[in-house]
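REVIEWER CHECKLIST
Item 1: Sequence provided? yes
Item 2: Single chain? yes
Item 3: Sequence as submitted:
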Amino acid sequence: MKTNLKLFNYTFFFIAGLLLFSSCAKQSGLSESEFLNIQTNFKTPAENNTIWCYWYWINDDISKEGITKDLEAMKKAGIGTAYIGNINPAGIDGKVPMLSEDWWSHMVHAVTEGKRIGVDIGIFNCPGWSQSGGPWVKSEMAMRYLTFSETRFEGPGITGMNLIQPNNEFQDVRVLAFPTPAKESVNLKTVGTDLKSTPQIKNIESSFDGDLKTFGEIKVEKESIVSIEIKTKKPITARQISLIPAQTPFKCECALYAKIDGAEKLVHEFSFDRSNFSVNVGPIVKGELAIALPDIKTDEFKLVLQNFGGNLNSVGFAEINISEAAVLENFVEKQLGKMFPTPLPFWNSYLWKNQEGNIEKEMLVDAGEVIDISDKLDENGKLIWDAPAGNWTIMRIGMTPTGTKNSPSAPQGQGYEIDKMSSDLARFHFENFVGEFLKRIPEESKPAFKYVIADSYEMGSQNWTDGYETKFTEKYGYDPVKYLPVLSGRIVGSVEESNRFLWDLRRSVADDVAHEYVGGLRKVSNENNLKLWLENYGHWGFPSEFMMYGGQSDLVGGEFWNEGTLGNIECKAASSAAHAYGKPITSAEAFTASGKAYTSSGKTQKTG
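Item 4: Structure as written out by the authors:
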C-alpha cells in the first residue's frame, strides 16, 4: 500500500505464485507429498514459479544501458517478472522526460530486452503508483461527485434569474424545485446571539455569522476543555446542530447542553472529526457535521469541546449553527462526501444509529412535490420558469471532479483520476496509456509484456457518473432524482426513505468500482492478451468491498510490512479473495516500510 499524501521509502520484493503454509496446512486436505513439494518449490523456485519485483524508474532517471543491466541482474537473481512503475517524487523532468518519444523507446527497450533475457514485464497502468489517471483524463471523464447551488423564489411568477454555477468545472445534471420546508430560516444567525467562551476564543462571532470565509480561532492542546455559551435573543426550538471546520484539520469530543426550567441539561454528546482534509477521504473536504437534536426549546445553550486531536495549535470552526429545521444526520458522510480519515476504518465506521424522533410533515420535502425544471435552464445558466404560488427552493445540481490525481508523477504525466463507475471510461484510460505502449512494441517482443498493474486503491470515492439516473432506476426500480435534495441534508419523504436512498447510492458505488472499473480494466486488458493485477484493497476512503473488488481482477496481491500491523488485513484480503474467486496465485509485496526501510530483511545483512 502506498500513499500520495506523503512520500515514503519502500523496500519492495514480490513473492508470486508461492503459497505460505503454517503448521495447520495439512488441514487443507493436502497429502504429505504434496505439502513437501510445496515446501521444496518455495525454497528453490522453478522457472515457472519465480520471484517477481516492483521495478521503479525514479524521476525518469533512466538509460537503455541501465535497463539492460537491471534485467540481466534480475535474471541472475532468479526474478522472473518485473513491474515497471514510473515514479517521480521530485515532480520534475529527469534525463528522459515522461511521455516523450525517447521515453516510450526506453519502455519498449525494457520489453524487448525482457524477451531476450527471459524476464516478463508488467507496467503500472498510469504514471505514479496509484491508480488510473493522466493528462488525457478531462474533467468530464474524471471521478465526480454531485455539487449544487440553491436559490429561493417566491411564486407565483416567472423567475428570469441566473442560477449560480457551483464550481468552475461543472456538468449540469438536474435543476429541481420544491416547496421550502418550514423553519429553515430560524437559526442562530437569524434570531441573534450573545456569545461567551472559556477560554476566550478570538473572533468568536465569526463562527456564528454565516460566512464560511471567517472563523473563530481557538488555542488548544490535547487536554484543553473549551466552553462556548450561546444565549439567543429569543427562544429557539433546536432540531439540529451543525459544525464546519475552519482552516486547520482537527477532531474533538462535543457535548451540547441546554438550560431547561432553570437547570442545565445534557442534550447530546457526539464526536467531531475533520482531522484529514485530503480529497482521498472525501471530496467535501470541509464538509459539515450535522447532528439531529430532540426538539429542545430554550434561549441558552452551552457547547463543550474536549479531547482534541489532529493538527493542534490553532483550530476553529468556520460555522456553528443551531437551527429549527429538520436535518438528515451525517448527510455528508452518507453521500460519501467525507469518509473515514485514517487507513483502517473500524467495523462500524459506515454504520449510523437510527435517527429518532417524529418530524412534522411541513419540515420534510415531499418527494411528490419535487419538480424537475431542468429544461427551463438555458445554456447561459438563466432559469425561465413560471413558478406556482409558494416559497420555492431551487437547486442547480451537477457533477464536479473530486480532484484526485495520479501520483507521484512528472507534471506532464499527471491528471485527473478516471471515472471509477464507467467501464467505457476505464477503457478510454487504458487506450491512452497501455494502448499507446502496445502500439510501439514490436510483435515479436509482445509475448514478454504480460501484466497491467493497478496497485492498491487510495483515490477516495465519487457518487455520480454520466447518465446515472437511468442506470440507478434500472437497478433499484425507482427514480433517484426526486431524492437529490437529500444531498443538502434535507429529509425527503421520511428519514427512512432518505437513508434508504443514500444506502442504495453507496451500494451502487461499491458495485461499480468493482465491476465497471476493475472489471472494465480486466476486460480490455484480456482483449490485448494481458492480465490485470492489483492489490485488492484500499485505504483512506475505499468505496468498494475488498472481496468483490479483487474478484474482478485476474490476479491479486497483498503485502506484509516491515513494521506495524497494516499488512495483516492486506494479506488476508488478498488470500481471501483468491480463495473465494478461485485464483490459484496470490502475491505478497514484501518488507514494505514507512520510514524504517532496510531495518530488517530475510537475512541479517546490510542492504541498499
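Item 5: Key structural point noted by reviewer: Residues 510 and 545 are 6 Å apart (CA to CA).
Item 6: Recommendation: ____
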